[in-house]
């Protein structure tokens, strides 16, 4: 299939492991180095997107939900936009900024437990440049950083030019975001943290769990704060196939609308590109590889996921046992989504601009304007 010279080279680099002399730790180190080298040398330089459509998924409940959210905007004091920390720079619905972005706005990058946070600073810097000054990373399943949400929202509301609270001490915040990013989980987590109360909003592992704008849910007593849960809303037109694939990998679009096969291939491409090689150990593959068919075949064999296929030959029907590629792709996606393949961030922030060149000074003083060098 799509097996470039580089991929072949990669397999050879990996293959050198068994042939190499020595053993134990030395070999492990060598193997680690080989993987690194392979990561640089053997991965695909790009992902072929031609011939693929951008997934479209804008069912009725999303359009209805968005209308309702717009109509309720006047009654809320602020907006918490929840997004997936694995795609901090892409996939947010631009309609939110256009139609709902006028209120005090907090961006919660949730599922931080699944994201590779080594470039967190660069990401925050990048978002700041886009005008997003209030960003928090959270893990709603373990209530990590949840204690920061209410104080920050309160501060944002109080410093907003619309703030004239008068007698009414309560605030109401709308929680928005694309599907399956953890909006309802955030509400439940805040209630657990501040009120020691159980779930108030239904949560689920696939997109489209919350179907309608819900009534106000109290999440804190002091200060008195209510949150409005809303259905996940995707942009009616997703910007590009690549963003669609990232959204799909994070489970915000129904898998079958995109196709598990291309999602698995894009996942493999991304893991290799970002040098996240945990999948090699996870499936006992022995070596990194950039050919999805070969990876899925080995996953299927390892998981004993095979299927009988009838093949018509000249002498009659023959039952052939084949690897179940779909089951393997599904397992690969599920492992990624549950963190089994390690922490991965699918977006890479643009490199920071280099600092301006230092002005040469003489004796600690900058040269006077217009003076000769
Ligand atoms: N690993 C991890 N999983 C999370 C986190 N927060 C939520 N989840 C899981 O993500 C899935 C979606 O959570 P929901 O709270 O239903 O997401 P939602 O945004 O309300 O989804 P819709 O209502 O469908 O738009 C569930 O399986 C949650 O358990 C988190 O911080 N880390
Ligand atoms: Mg929900």
UniProtKB/TrEMBL annotation:
RNA-binding found in the keyword field: no
Pfam family, one: MMR_HSR1
Major subcellular location class: mitochondrion
Stored SUPFAM superfamilies: P-loop containing nucleoside triphosphate hydrolases (SSF52540)
GO MF annotations in UniProt: GTP binding; GTPase activity
UniProt subcellular location: Mitochondrion inner membrane
Name of protein: Mitochondrial ribosome-associated GTPase 1
Organism annotation: Ornithorhynchus anatinus (Duckbill platypus)
């Amino acid at each position: 299939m799509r097996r470039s010279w580089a991929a072949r080279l990669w397999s050879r680099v990996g293959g050198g492991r068994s042939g190499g002399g020595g053993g134990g730790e030395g070999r492990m180190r060598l193997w680690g180095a080989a993987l690194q080298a392979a990561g640089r040398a053997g991965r695909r330089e790009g992902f072929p997107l031609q011939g693929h459509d951008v997934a479209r998924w804008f069912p009725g409940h999303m359009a209805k939900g968005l209308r309702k959210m717009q109509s309720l905007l006047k009654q809320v004091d602020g907006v918490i936009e929840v997004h997936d920390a694995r795609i901090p720079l892409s996939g947010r619905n631009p309609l939110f900024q256009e139609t709902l972005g006028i209120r005090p706005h907090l961006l919660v990058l949730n599922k931080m437990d699944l994201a590779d946070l080594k470039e967190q600073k660069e990401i925050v810097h990048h978002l700041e440049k886009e005008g997003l000054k209030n960003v928090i990373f959270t893990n709603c399943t373990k209530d990590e950083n949840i204690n920061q949400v209410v104080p920050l929202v309160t501060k944002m509301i109080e410093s907003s030019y619309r703030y004239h609270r008068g007698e009414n001490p309560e605030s109401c915040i709308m929680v928005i975001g694309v599907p399956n990013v953890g909006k309802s989980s955030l509400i439940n987590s805040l209630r657990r943290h501040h009120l020691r109360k159980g779930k108030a909003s239904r949560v689920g592992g696939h997109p489209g769990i919350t179907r309608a704008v819900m009534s106000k849910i109290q999440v804190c007593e002091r200060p008195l704060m209510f949150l409005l849960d809303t259905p996940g809303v995707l942009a009616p037109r997703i910007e590009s196939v690549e963003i669609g694939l990232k959204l799909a990998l994070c489970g915000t679009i129904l898998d079958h609308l995109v196709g598990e096969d291309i999602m698995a291939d894009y996942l493999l491409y991304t893991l290799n590109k970002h040098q996240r090689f945990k999948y090699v150990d996870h499936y006992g593959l022995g070596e990194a590889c950039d050919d999805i068919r070969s990876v899925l075949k080995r996953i299927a064999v390892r998981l004993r996921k095979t299927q009988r296929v009838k093949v018509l030959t000249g002498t009659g029907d023959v039952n052939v046992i084949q690897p179940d590629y779909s089951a393997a792709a599904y397992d690969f996606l599920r492992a990624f989504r549950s963190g089994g393949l390690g922490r991965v961030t699918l977006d890479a922030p643009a490199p920071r601009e280099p600092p301006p060149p230092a002005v040469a000074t003489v004796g600690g003083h900058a040269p006077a304007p217009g003076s000769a060098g």
